[in-house]
Here is the input.
Amino acid sequence: MQWRAIAWGVLLVAAAARPGVDALDRRLVQPSWNIPSNWNAIADAAVRSGAVDPNLEGRRAPWRQASVLSVGGTRLGVVTISDLRRARVTFITDRYEPIASFERVVADPALVTDETRGFKPLSHIWPIVEEPPRLLTLVADAPLRSDPVNMGVFAYLGVGPSDTELLFVCRLAWGPDSMHVELVREDVNGDGHGDLVLYPRERRDAAPAARFIWQPATREYVATISPEARPLIAWWSTSPRNRVTVRADQPIDAAIAAITAGFGHP
Amino acid sequence: MVEARVVERSPLGFVGLIVRALFVPWTFDAAAPVPALSAGVVACLAVVGGAVLSTVLSTWTYLTGKGLLVTVREMDMGMDDLPADTVRQVAACAAASFVLWILILALALGIAIAVADTIYRADRNGFRAAARRTGAMSVWFVVWAAVILGANSVREREVRHPAAAIRAYAQLNQHWFRGSSAFAPGPIEVEPLVARGRTMWLAMAFPLVWALSLPRRGTAWSGTPALMVAAAIGLSWIAWAAVWRLLPWLSIETFTG
Here is the structure.
């Protein structure tokens, strides 16, 4: 009789305290980092561990998604929580340490739920580059369905743990005879920093239509644009005189919109 | 006196055991005793059968189907920028799903037997009868798994196309919304028949039918069978609630698919 009462008591106390259950759960789910169809479990584990704030505007976000990237030889989890209008993207290590985060608000749900690109236009289009203390990535302000970066508004970001710096914003348009350019990140001058290049008609073997060379000393892009590319791009670069940062808990879209408003009508 | 009369009867046959457990579980007292071997065999078959049916309704079935019908390079969730799973990953996760469902059903059996042990703490004959009947009643695990499969088909409006219903389950479980998301994503919707949702139905319903099979005649509960049934159900739900909080649900749901 006594040992039964003790056993039931232990069970109820353990259920109340849940000692080590969440830690065990996180450990058991760790193999999911290697299994693409299990990646969403990383989002759930990140929320449970506190690495990702599950709330948007004071309410629990109803949707989550995660993917895993290899950055500089290490794995990064890209965790998105969203209500399909507003979203927060958090980059975490495989120890569930948050290293960068930004938020977005969009009018078009397709922009935050672009299934055909694995939900990446929201978080990143290009491979992420690590330039401590920030992660560099390009985000889109137009739904991309596995399309090249050749039309619409794009922003190149330096995402940090507490804020996001806008490095470069551009609006790409198509000209007559389907003339268009594709935005590509390349190290043009071999200085180890990523520069931005526009190639005509997505032909990377052609002479660039424009180059935006990163100047580490002044932290700005210096442009060289051919006459035929000028009608196809409107652009803005960060500079020592005009640096735009957005707090991690504020959406970046208003800042991007303020910049593109200065471009005038396309 | 009553016990002596019961012992003299020939044991229930295998089929009779299952039929009685399925349709008239409250009549076990009026029947011959349940043989331990038969109860054990039914329990093993029911746990394995329930686990097989539960594993069928999983992401891994969908991915296996894509691998067999299309190519192993297509074992993904339909998002073209995400890589596919490998054959080994899909096979390992399907096996893990099967094992996890076996463990969950074994846990259900364990909880029932633990509750019976408490209910019949002063009546070991009653406990032994209850334990054997618990084995027989585990045939309801197969019923539960089949009902879940059917409920998913009804929910997905794919009663005539079970494979399509499983595909819809897997996609909703992955995406958390329906529809062509790139153009018009549907409202956010979390798949209710994932492991936790399914197990919740088992935890709620199994004690209700199982308690009906418990021995009443010739036990300390002879005068208050309704109270005994209520106590068994209540204690089962308390045990489930406690165990529920101790289970690593995130990994269970991840690997059951």
